[in-house]
Amino acid sequence: MRPIVSDQNSLRNPLNALLGAEALVRLLRVLASEVDGPLTTSNAAELAGLTIPGAHKALKRLLKSGMVVRVGGGRRHQYELRRSDALVKALLKLFQSEKDRYEALISAIREGIEKVVPYANSAWIQEFPRVLGDPMIIGLLHETKHLANYCHLLRKKLHQIERDFDLTIEVNGYTKADLPDLEADKVTPLYGFLPFPGKHSRGTYPVFANHEEKDQRMLELSRRLAEAIEHDTSLVRRAKEHVQRMLKKDHGLATKDIEEWRDILESYSIRRLSRFLTATSERANRLRQSNPIFAILNSEERRRLLNGLGGKQ
């Protein structure tokens, strides 16, 4: 049975086609909020999680809509949003609201976890909803004697969050004896150090055998970050936003380092920041341990950055 009984003017209602196709929405989101500047088809496909042929087809539709323009020439065509377009301006606000809503949700869940005592060893998002209406599944590790009561108290804390976001949140509690077979780079950390093997099994950074090896690997990681920000300056913008969000809360002794990173990100040029990331001064070595640029990378960006880095995982 055909659900639509009458046609609508595509000029009057262009969002019918644009927002009704997930590939188009993914590409618009990437161009709107994940990069600064134009992208090639292959770059856009990678960031949006699409095949190159799929991204090419979707970009052609976006070109026809007038929301995206093509820049450059030859075989290296690039695409960017027509940011002067009224609908694009509205979409920018929409994607920012989407991002703010997600970050508010994660922040609220973390706050709930941090308020329940005795504190869990670690907590993570084990599974996101695949479709709207599915539950989010949170996993946590605790001592056997505290596990059942902690899960009970945490579920009570999460009730208000579920109402606020119209979302079902399930809690799976584990002891060391019954941890599931998961990989750290397949879950989203919420609290503590992840107890799973993988590139991120000790919180944000990989684990190394000793302090000397850690310093060497962290310096190499910073060199890679320096190259990354020169290639994609939106990483710096995302890091600024991350730091501003962190400073809305008290982080104790870590607040001073966060404030230093805020000042660095606000005042340093890309070239100067790149040099600072690879410096070996006392200040650079100290702040390297809390680099917010690494913290904002998604799992795929981290995988590429850490690939071949080595260290004891």
Could you characterize the architecture of this molecule?
- Helices cover 52% and strands 11% of the residues.
- It is α+β, with helices and mostly antiparallel strands and 313 residues long.
- The protein folds into 3 domains: 70 residues, Winged helix-like DNA-binding domain superfamily/Winged helix DNA-binding domain (Arc Repressor Mutant, subunit A), CATH 1.10.10; 96 residues, GMP Synthetase, Chain A, domain 3, CATH 3.30.300; 96 residues, no CATH class.
- The strands form 2 sheets. A 4-stranded mixed β-sheet has the order 6-5-4-7, covered by helices on one side. Strands 1-3-2 form a 3-stranded antiparallel β-sheet.
- Strand 2 and strand 3 form a beta hairpin.
- Helix 5 runs antiparallel to helix 6.
Helix and strand layout, with pairings?
Blueprint: H1 15-18, H2 22-34, E1 39-40, H3 41-48, H4 52-65, E2 68-71, E3 78-81, H5 86-114, E4 122-127, E5 136-141, H6 144-165, E6 169-174, E7 188-192, H7 211-231, H8 234-246, H9 255-267, H10 270-277, H11 282-288, H12 292-295, H13 299-306
Parallel strand pairs: 5-6
Antiparallel strand pairs: 1-3, 2-3, 4-5, 4-7
Helix pairs in contact: 2-3, 2-5, 3-4, 5-6, 7-10, 8-9
